[in-house]
Write a structure and sequence with these properties.
Elements: H1 5-10, H2 42-78, H3 95-100
Length: about 120
């Protein structure tokens, strides 16, 4: 005698069949590591503001540096004899300084403190 197991499974009582309940999505702010129920905590917003300000400052610094490099290239192209000569004292700028800071227009002792290249251990 042949027993049809497929039809027996479908004919089984509903309380005997197991259904797997899908996990519900966690509401915002209840995940691991969240300390607040707010979707965006004020501290997160502050960190975002600081990051944007840092990006803006870095972009401004890079823009200023590119402008100084462009000025040095223009000087080198238009007045090659003026390149490598201090605009303050008229003394030649040492090659070592020009090698490190090719856009410089002054000697190291004539440069403002904030424009001097910093050593890695400083």
């Amino acid at each position: 005698m042949h027993v049809d197991t497929a039809s027996r499974r479908t004919a089984a009582a509903p309380w005997t069949t197991r259904t797997r309940k899908e996990p519900e999505a966690e509401p915002l702010g209840t995940g691991a590591g969240d300390l607040s129920k707010y979707p965006s905590h004020p501290a997160d917003l502050g960190a975002d503001v600081v990051e944007r300000e840092m990006d803006q400052l870095l972009a401004e610094h890079q823009t200023a540096l590119i402008e100084r490099i462009d000025e040095a290239l223009t000087l080198l192209r238009e007045e090659p004899k003026a390149y490598g000569v201090s605009r303050v004292s008229g003394e030649p700028i040492p090659f070592e300084r020009l090698d490190l800071v090719p856009w410089t227009r002054v000697l190291a002792d004539e440069a403002p403190e904030d424009q001097l290249p910093r050593s890695p251990d400083a």
